[in-house]
Amino acid sequence: MRIQYNLPVKHGWQRMKRALFQPFDLGRWMVLGFTAWLAQLADGHGGGVGAQDAFDIGRGSESDGFNEAFGGAWDGLSDFLSTGVGVVIVAMIVVTILVVSILILWISCRGRFMFLDNLIQGRTEVTQPWRDFQAHGDSLFLWTLGYNIVAMLVVGALIGGLVIVLVPAVALDLSGAVSLLMAMLLGTVFFVVVVTMAYIEYFLHNFVVPIMHKRGVSTSQAWRMFLALFQAHPGPFVAFGLYHLVIGFGLGLVFAVAGIMTCCLGFFLMLLPYLRSVVTLPASVLVRFMNLEFLAQFGDDYTMLPPLKPAAPDHPYSGYDNTDGTVVGPEDVGHDTSGDEPGPQGP
User: Fold this and answer.
1) Which residues touch 239 (CB under 8 Å, ≥6 apart)?
2) Is the backbone peptide bond immediately before 23 cis, with ω within 30 degrees of 0?
3) How many CA atoms lie within 13 A of 127 on its CB side?
4) Residues 1, 298: contact at Cβ < 8 Å?
């Protein structure tokens, strides 16, 4: 099996143009952008303590400066939390944030299937796919919620281990070589964990969700199907993930240039949640289509899109797309060499 990397992007580009620009329909664009917004609603939400924050523990000079600048505010906050009312208010804030975050995740999981189904079916529906993919969305939500909890525990354990290792090293004033060795070891562990989590999310959103859509199975069942395929072809999936990252950087540069050329109007629009999804809709559609095209190379069981049909020509010899992505133009048609003259021919 010969796996290609450029052809899925080329076919994804063609499908994106046909879905959004041939013809251009603002109403269709806005509705499809709404489902894309729902799908991306949970992206970027959440947080945690980064490695740099952990390494800042024990830096005395900066801690002294922080205490001098914010010591009064911290004392006031401590006094507030020492009262029962303060604890209740803080607890209510934390619970509210958790409930809103879980609600956003639940909506986003359903939205991923809505956006995917609209692209596969070539339509712009909201209510129908919302109802049709209730079970799929709930399954994805529960799996993602459990995964996020496990991921936070893993990151928390790593940060705890970082503190346990570095604080004694600073207290004992170990040599620079030992401290550097510890930092390199912990940095390697963090890198492996971050890359693994990034690939899990990439595989989940771009391959597991489409398998759920096609087979009508739960998230765990779709993961088992994908992992069987991944074990047979690990290299192409890892490589295409890196290719996907490069394309993402390229698209980011394109939008950055567009924002500058529009006198920062583009940047302003991308700050608004829904309008950001509308403005960046071509990129979202391209990425979704190219991953579906890549997955389709592994057989009919993983093909979600109909064949790429030739575009309707404007005149008999206008260029059109073949199903393999090539373009046929007038120069490829050739000339009639039979020697017949125009008009009625004799027997």
Assistant:
1) 5
2) yes
3) 0
4) yes
> Please, are residues 104 and 41 in contact by the beta-carbon 8 Å criterion?
yes
Q: Nearest Cα to 55, choosing from 142, 165, 157, 137?
A: 165
Token pair of 308, please? Answer: 């790429």
Stated as kind and residue range, the H or E segment containing 321 is strand 320-321
| Rounded-to-integer distance, Cα 197 and Cα 184, Å | 20
Residue 329 to residue 311: CA distance in whole angstroms: 12
CA-CA distances (angstroms) from residue 138 to 112, 127, 134, 144? 11, 16, 6, 10
Between CA 114 and CA 105 the distance in angstroms is 14
pTM: 0.74
Q: Distance (Å, rounded) from C-alpha 244 to C-alpha 313?
A: 32
User: Is residue 320 classed as helix, strand or coil in its secondary structure?
Assistant: strand
Structure tokens at 336: 């009639």
Q: What is the pLDDT of residues 207-220, one digit of tens each?
A: 999 999 999 999 99
